[in-house]
Amino acid sequence: MEMLVYLIPISLFLGGLGLAAFFWALRSRQYDDPEGDGQRFLNDDWDDHPKP
Amino acid sequence: MAVAPPTRPMVCGACAVTPAAETLAARKAPTDARVMLSLPTIRCAGCISAVERGLNAMPDVRSARVNLTLKRVSIDGAPDLTAGAAIDALERLGYEAHELDPGILSATETDRAGRDILMRLAVAGFAAMNVMLLSVAIWSGAADATRDLFHWISAAIALPTIAFSGQPFFRNAWAALSVRRLNMDVPISLAILLAGGMSLFETMQSGHHAYFDAALSLTFFLLAGRYLDHRTRAVARSAAEELAALEVPRALKMTADGPQEVAIAALAVGDVVQVRPGGRVPVDGIITTGQSEIDRSLLTGESLPVFAGGGDAVSAGEVNLTGPLEVRVTAAGEDSSLHRMADLVAVAESTRNRYTSLADRAAGIYAPGVHLLSLFAFIGWMIISGGDVRLALNIAVAVLIITCPCALGLAVPAVTTAASGRLFKRGMLIKDGTALERLAEVDTVVFDKTGTLTLGAPEPTNLDQHSNRHLQVALALAAQSAHPLAEALTKTARRGGITPARVTDIREEPGYGVAGTWQGQTVRFGRAAWLGATPGDATAAWLRIGDADPVEFTFSDSLRPGAAKAVADLRAQGKSVHLLSGDAAGPVADLATRLEIADWQAGVLPSEKAAFVQSLSDAGARVLMVGDGLNDTAALSAAHVSISPASALDAARVASDIVLLGSDLSPLGDAMITAKRATRRIKENFTIAALYNMIAIPIALVGLATPLAAALAMSASSITVSLNALRLR
Question: What are the φ and ψ backbone dihedral angles of B487, each rounded to 5 degrees?
Fold first, then answer.
């Protein structure tokens, strides 16, 4: 049962990390154009070298 | 007979080179130009990169970013970047583009309210998952110190989450209570707050049952419903705003240095504005110079252009057809007849009987019922247990949680989201939340003619009755004019393989027609009165060779694609179909026979249209009005539900509940069926929610409801309701 002392904070921390990541994505407007983002990866403009 | 599709802004190639447009852009944004364009035809990854690459190659463009969801591109660039230049560049690439007014769009660009709900939803989801995990441990038998510890951790997660995520409900509930009314949010807030408070008390007393998980999943599910609701509305609103933003309000003001592009709002009475052929008259005024023909169809519904010359009055919203006009402003902006009509609509809107949606009606029965039931449980158990407040309160809270309208909160939004998504794919935009429910009740459909059932574009009807000689001369003359009748004749004659005669000295007499010389004779093609002919009933242009008798070329309005199918579908569904038009009897009767509409009226005034719709409603009919002109707006707002095409005038689109985005009318019949099915699903969802309650309430009342039972009932009913809604897609 002593494991709970570690496990519960760890699970809360990991969940919180996911929540923070979602907040970041929302604030940096990554949900503004879901359809366009779905299509953009088909674009081969930067296949040979990274976008400068 | 609208010439230019009215939603198309008058963005011309020339704007790119006029200094006026550039100074305007520079004044608006001294350091940076920001241009927004609507791209109705883009749909794939190839289009995105072609558009972005094409725009980024322009020297003035700093960055261009396409938003495929909204079908828009926003361009940041050097101060002298103009929308005209960008539109030209895109047109060369093969993409249709229209300028959007960024001022109108700014409201939807950042969807603050949507992001706010999404953020609260995410927090509630996170907390609900973690607390549920801890609760599973308790349900599977954790006892004593472990249970208390888990309860305390749950409280630490749940209480701040409730305080943050529950705010939309608390705010709405407070707003309703402060005006002494009950809405759905009152039982919701009460259930969330009581569940949280009661559970905290139980935790302090190291009790067995805590409802933290129920309070959180309730918040989560209800926020999900709230977000779906918001999403549907935001999509509709941004598209509606986009339609409005397409009409960039500018006029050409005559100044000492020649015509200058200014905002309509900046015009004053006494100013002189220029209206180019094909342009919309921006103000009410009197013509000072020039003569032309004026298309009034959007204001009055008449399809025949009217002659206008010096001294004649013109009203905002009319379209100038042939010659350039200079108009002295008598009323601009808020005072113009266009605005006065729009104001009339606003008045009609506010007096319109407010429709109570199914959700509101359900809430009206539900909210008081729930409160009474849990009060009854509390009093009942106080008597049975002989005054055990803690037990009685526990049971009352369990009743409140179990009956809480989790499924009810999802029942309507899930269905409307699915239904409006389905209709949006078919080119219909639902502007109003209750429009679908109202559409499902419709039994009578009233159509406007010009611009609604017809495209407002003429088609020659009697070319085969003319000799080849007449046709050749007429074609030679018509080809030199931009008048819609001449253009229609040119197009059809060319398609028929007719070669133009050799006519010399061709000149256009604005407002009258075209004249020239052919084999030594004067030939003229134009208005009946100009050629000495007696005008008939139909829309017509006349040709006169020398002194011979004039011959008539008749035209009729071409049918909007899908109009026949829409009317046939509606009749097959048993609706009674009417046709009301401000146009003359001839063309209206012709159209009515083509579409087999028995019930038609011609020459109807705007107020008579509204009165007709009102009289149908008074007789108990549920009327759907489909119209596009300013003359229809009063009828549109008087009807039970209304639809207008995207080419309709601004005021008409504002007055209607649904906008047809494409030019095709055929989705109309399908929309009726979808609306009916959506309403049926909503009612089914209410039934499902009620069934769950019928099972759960007795269990809660006898005091057997554990937090596990509450969680199961809540999740099961929410998921069934959502799945049932998804069947609509």
Answer: -65, -40
- Phi, psi torsion values for B578, nearest 5 degrees: -120, 155
Contact B76, B137 (CB under 8 A): no
Residue B606 has pLDDT above 50, yes or no: yes
Q: What ipTM goes with this model?
A: 0.82
DSSP string, B63-125: EEEEETTTTEEEEEE-TT--HHHHHHHHHHHT---EEE-HHHHHHHHS-HHHHHHHHHHHHHH
Among the listed residues B650, B669, B5, the one whose alpha carbon sits nearest the alpha carbon of residue B341: B650
Burial (CB count within 10 angstroms: exposed 0-12, middle 13-18, buried 19+), residue A49: exposed
Could you report the per-residue pLDDT of B660-697, keeping only the tens digit for each? 877 788 888 888 999 999 999 988 888 888 888 888 88
A24 — contact with chain B (CB < 8 Å)?
Answer: no
Name the nearest CA neighbour of B305 among B124, B512, B104, B8: B512
Contact B169, B220 (CB under 8 A): no
* Other CB atoms within 10 A of residue B612 CB: 19
Closest CA to B413 of B70, B724, B173, B69: B724
Model confidence pLDDT, tens digit, residues B65-74: 888 877 788 8
- Which chain B residue is nearest to residue A21, measuring alpha carbons? B122
Cβ–Cβ gap B45/A45 under 8 Å: no
Contacts made by residues B520-526, CB under 8 angstroms, sequence distance 24+ = B521/B545, B521/B546, B522/B546, B523/B473, B523/B477, B524/B477, B525/B473, B525/B474, B525/B477, B525/B478, B525/B486
Determine whether the interchain pair A26/B129 forms a contact, defined as Cβ–Cβ distance below 8 Å: no
Does the pLDDT value for residue B97 go beyond 70?
yes
* Alpha helices by DSSP H, A1-52: 3-27, 34-40
**Residue B497 reports pLDDT greater than 50:** yes
Amino acid B162: pLDDT: 94
Q: Which residues contact A27 (CB under 8 A, 6 or more apart)?
A: none
> Residue B251 corresponds to which tokens in the numbers above?
């006029």
Instruction: Give φ, ψ of B182 to 5 degrees.
Output: -115, 135
Q: Which residue in B53, B130, B149 is closest to A15 by CB distance?
A: B130
Q: What single letter denotes the amino acid at residue B584?
A: A
What percent of chain A stands above pLDDT 70?
Answer: 96
Distant-in-sequence, close-in-space partners of B536: CB < 8 Å, separation ≥ 6: B552, B554
3-class DSSP state of B307:
strand
